[in-house]
Amino acid sequence: KKTDAAPGQFGFSFLVRGGYGSILDLEMGEGAFASDVLYHYDVAGMTCQDFNMMLKANAIDLRRTIGISDLRLEGSAPSDMLQLVVKSIVSFANYRRFNQESYDRYLKSEPLRIEMALSDVSGLMADVDAVMRPDYRFTQYKYARNLKKSLPDKVNPYLNARFHNMNDGVIMIVGDVPADQVLKVFTKYAGSLGTGKSIAIRPQSQYVLKSSISSLGRKAIHEDMLSATMSMSAMVPVTAERFFAFKLAQVLLKERLAAGLKDAGLWAEISDGVELSPAERFSLTVTARPLGESSLPEGVSPASASEAMRVLRESLSASLSSPVSAEALKVAKSVLAKQLEYDMAQPENVIDAAAVRYSDGKDLYSKYKEIVNALSAAAVQDIMASLDAGCKVEYVMDK
Q1: Residue 377: DSSP 8-state
Q2: Which positions ≥6 away from 80 have C-beta within 8 Å?
Q3: Nearest to residue 247, comparing CAs of 327, 316, 329?
Q4: Which residues neighbour 27 within 8 Å (Cβ) at sequence distance 6 or greater?
Q5: Which residues pair with 231 in a beta bridge?
Q6: Could you give the 3-state DSSP secondary structure of residue 187?
Q7: 217 vs 269, more confident
Q8: H or E stretch covering 76
Q9: Residue 399: is it exposed, middle or buried by C-beta count within 10 angstroms (0-12/13-18/19+)?
């Protein structure tokens, strides 16, 4: 797809179906580290360090990811680097050799990075996920106890199988690249990509989502971490209509929570998650943080973290259960339409939408304008009700 959203740049993705859910003998939590193994391969006679430096020197961002349902080599690069990008990926697929020395260094340093990450805000979601689905074998969150020296022995046969089955994959090029240049490069290199007969199987559900409310808390290691968080998750089949109803619900919640929290000296940060494999669910996380001094209403001081949790709980409950008026829905649709228009002009988002369609069989964006326009208040309220009735985890980070 030719676009001018990022002049002189293009995005790319080489995707093959079948992710770490299909790696044989993978132990609990090992999948979270599978992607890291891909950075410890020497490529076409270059050490892994030299290969990465070569890419960086040419302004090529080549991310290597093994997800739950697919393998992706993707990123961005200057428009005149298309041939080098394709050549690098073909070389990685066909001419790689595992660098044990590099991986051994990683085994020593990675636990320290994990410890640092889990002590910061990013550790919050790892804790929440562990409570929501404690027996989930394919968690994406890293714990040092799950990092094993033998992991490359499991990943390498998987890579061999995937890279020899590119007919079960898709290649996406989006950005400022002429079609004739793409044709010229792929005419030269496409024959080097292996093909096979096997079909990747989507992993089956490996967990049961808890249906209760849980409370967690830990000490904040610095002031800007003081917060109260409510995370909600519901197992709901994902359709394009529900997906955009979920997006509209977030626009409405942002507006409602801003009004509900300001008198307590708080503001809300909202993040979402839509999971398709191994099971379909919607997740929403709302974090209440103290307002900056310049934004505080006169005579108001920020609530403590524990008090903020009470205020957030009440405000969120009211926001999720309040009816959606025709006027509020109209405004929310206008806000979402502008956001989507910008997002779908960006190469990485076009690629992500196509990847979801191919890898997970969900066409969410093809007619997004028509779908958003047709959504009713009842559809938005149904999503809100599902989240309100689903699994909830409260998390306080206090002094």
Answers
A1: H
A2: none
A3: 329
A4: 146, 148
A5: 285, 393
A6: helix
A7: 269
A8: strand 70-78
A9: exposed
List the structure tokens of 101.
């020395």
| For residue 135, pLDDT beyond 90 | no
- Give the C-alpha separation, 121 to 100, whole Å: 32
CA of 354: how far to CAs of 181, 221, 365, in Å? 21, 40, 9
Residue 104 identity (one-letter amino acid): D
Alpha-carbon distance 223 to 19, whole Å? Answer: 39
Query: Bigger pLDDT: 321 or 199?
Result: 321
Q: Alpha-carbon distance 262 to 290, whole Å?
A: 9
What is the C-alpha separation between 11 and 24, in angstroms, rounded? Answer: 31
Q: Which two tokens stand for residue 346?
A: 């960006």
- Report in angstroms the alpha-carbon separations of 152 from 45, 95, 145, 148, 283: 20, 16, 16, 9, 32
Please choose, from the candidates 35, 11, 17, the residue with its C-alpha nearest in 3D space to the C-alpha of residue 85.
Answer: 11
pTM of the model: 0.91
Kindly report the average pLDDT of the chain as a whole number. 91
CA 35 to each of CA 62, 169, 177, 213: distance values in angstroms, whole numbers, following the listed order = 12, 18, 28, 33
Cβ contact 137:28 at 8 Å = yes
Q: Report DSSP letters for 23-75, one per residue.
A: STTPPTTGGGGHHHHTTSEEETTB-HHHHHHHHHHTT-EEEEEE-SSEEEEEE
CA–CA–CA angle 35, 118, 31 (5° rounding): 25
Task: Compute the distance between CA of residue 50 and CA of residue 56 in angstroms, rounded to an integer.
Answer: 10
13 strand-pairing partners: 74, 172
**Window from 84-88, 221-225, 319-323, 354-358 with minimum mean pLDDT:** 221-225
Q: Return the C-alpha torsion angle 314, 315, 316, 322, nearest 10.
A: 110
- The DSSP 8-state label assigned to residue 322 in this structure reads S
3 state DSSP class of 289: strand
